[in-house]
Amino acid sequence: MDSKAMDTSKAKEVALENMLLVTSSPHIRSNESVQRIMLDVIIALAPAIIGSVYFFGLNALKLILISVASSMVFEAIIQKIFNRPITLDDFSAIITGILIAFNLPADAPWWLPVAGSAFAIIVVKQFFGGLGANFMNPALAARAFLLSSWPSHMASFTGTRPDVVATATPLAIMKYGMGPDTAASATVAAATSASEAAGAELPTLWNMFIGSIPGAIGETSTLLLLIGAAYLLIRKVIDWKIPVFYLGTTFIMLVLLGVEAEFLSYHMLGGGLILGAFFMATDYVTTPVTPVGRIIFGIGAGILTALIRVKGGYPEGVSYSILLMNVATPLIEKFTRPRVFGEVKN
Amino acid sequence: MKLENLTFKGGVSVPHYKELTENLPIEKAKEPAIVKIPLHQHTGAPCEAMVKVGDSVKVGQKIGESEAFVSAPVHSSVSGTVKEIMDMPIPTGLTVKCVVIESDGKNELHESVRPKGKLEDLSSEEIIEIIREAGITGMGGASFPTHVKLSPPSDKKIDTVLINGAECEPYLTADHRVMAEEAEKVIFGLKAIMKALGVDRGVIGVEKNKPDAIKALKEASQGEENISIATLKVKYPQGDEKRLINAILGRVVPSGGLPMDVGAVVSNASTTRAIAEAILEGKPLIERVTTVTGNGIKNPKNLLVKIGTPFKDLIEECGGFTEDSPGKIIAGGPMMGISQFSIDVPIIKGSGGILVLSKEEAKPEPIQPCIRCGKCLEVCPVKLQPLYISSYTLKKNFDKAEEYNALDCVECGACSYICPAKRPLVESIRLAKREILAKRKAK
């Protein structure tokens, strides 16, 4: 009787020990998650998505959907081939898809986002190890790829409804539309813009602010992008440092490079600067994690953007600036290591 | 200077879960039938047993001692008979020699337990000797012998004694209740430490989520010109002593240094109360307040428990496990506590709590790749880059981990807590520290 009682108590004990989970601390985790962060970015992009359909019509929606769908399909296929876990549920491919579409003109052919997604997801993201391991912003790399492969498709911008006709972006007008060196450009893309830009007139600043101007479908509405950016800042998804230093430096550099006062606002509101500063230059994976590094990243991108716009061959320059700073990120981080608390000064 | 709402840079706000026990008065735990008293429950040299199997012992009788300076004697917390002296696991994860004593239930006091006289009549040396003899060690977790802290080398000029009442670990309310209910003893203990060090400034730092403790301490310290109460922002890890010094005194303890390098000595609130009892009653450190809590426990409580009481007794006293429990049993709080294999381990001097998480709460979350969000840098109180130390460690590149200052990590766990990808950041840094130190030792 006694021994039996002991046996059961021992059996209970063994059972308890098998039930207990033993791990290293901490034993609680925050509610933060990769999914939630990505979802927040998608929510922040939503006003601009809706705006793009309003300004550019259903073709914009079609491009966004094709781009997102193809990004997801390529992600799943390549992960299957590489025998990696399929991670569509982290939502990162959705964001890449939206951002690729945002960089396209409204009348781009359907296969353009497909080609862009393939390059972004397969080459830039998955070849380098997938989420967290890519060294360049996939969407921006895709834009650069498309721009150099199909320049005419990428630069043929339509105006907003109801007058959907081929036209030039405000920055193209500023670059090529005025002054004696009209159409003196090196690239086909620029030439296309340049020929359209000659003699065109700049839109009003109000139209630039709300987004009723020619341009890539997701980049035109400063207002809607800023609403999304405010959401990301409030949710603490993005750090203010990169966008603030990026925009501030671009402004100062444009002034230093002699851009006239009346064109400054067009520069700040146009050419994807707002989209780039808040949604692309803040991409975690391809920008520095150190606080000082983020400031340097913003300043560097600002200098490059202004230089490309004023001295270079392209009217815009946001994407190349960010891409160049992406590549410089490991180096920036190396030189901006925070001083450890109590580190003895040498 | 106003000592209100002070804080440090970095850190993370963690839900404190203290509502389970913060308003429950300290209860005396049931008398344990047996106690298991480890001979090594402190930082430093282990004690040698001073009793043999079959000996009868009394409450407060010294049963283990060491010749080494960095060590602390241990005492019996019951009166009864020594049943066994054998190796057993203790909550720190180590297996150490323990003296198992069967209680006779009489609680007869040993003759050494008697008041040590008035504080005014005691010299600095006498106070430190009383503290050493009482086996007092830091009760906040690290269990460093207190008399060693109170004997700084003569070239270190100490000007301030800080009492750590931050208790920033979620769930735990032991220090909170001690400060709220026994503020006089905490003030007395602080005065004893100040006298031992010849210091005329004492500050007690308490997080603002313990208003009753702050009020009690302010009342108890009325008229004490040299003692002030500092309120601290509720932020983890405010109770890390270097963070506490930084928040209250604005001083920065150098990397690899000790509080004494910046003229401060820090003592935990419960430790300070134990010092008061050692002087006032002559009672060695044989009991402490422990919070038994968590959603995995039926009736969470703040218990005054005898050192050596098995966890199992206390869990039973608190009504046992809830339905979906136990998932995890933790000695200490959820941020830095140590999860246990068994509930047969005893309460030791450093046991501030027993936390039982339900199975649901204990479920580990899947680990995702690092997205370099940088949140671990933002929360790190030491300004490390946990993502890099962790990634080098996982690649077994410990030299690189050392280059990224892995040894400065205080293991607070804020990085792992905040990580959206649920990566094992502090867990791997801990591993790196051990490897780096082992390598240094081998050289």
Q: How would you portray this structure in words?
A:
The complex is a heterodimer of chains A (346) and B (443). Helix content of chain A is 63%, strand content 1%. Chain A is mainly α and 346 residues long. In chain A, strands 1-2 form a two-stranded antiparallel sheet. The radius of gyration of chain A is 24 Å and the shape is globular. Chain B has three domains: 32-112 and 284-359, Ubiquitin-like (UB roll) (Roll); 114-280, NADH-ubiquinone oxidoreductase 51kDa subunit (Rossmann fold, 3-Layer(aba) Sandwich); 375-442, no CATH class. Helix content of chain B is 28%, strand content 19%. Chain B has 14 helices and 17 strands. Chain B has helices at residues 124-133, 146-149, 174-181, 183-197, 211-220, 241-249, 269-280, 311-317, 359-362, 375-379, 386-394, 398-403, 414-418, 425-442, and strands spanning 27-28, 34-38, 48-49, 56-57, 62-65, 74-75, 80-89, 95-103, 160-165, 202-207, 227-232, 264-268, 287-293, 301-306, 328-331, 338-339, 353-357. In chain B, the strands form four sheets. Chain B has a six-stranded mixed beta sheet with strand order 1-14-13-17-15-16, sandwiched between helices. A four-stranded antiparallel beta sheet of chain B has the order 2-8-7-4, with no helix packed on it. In chain B, strands 11-10-9-12 form a four-stranded parallel beta sheet, with helices on both faces.
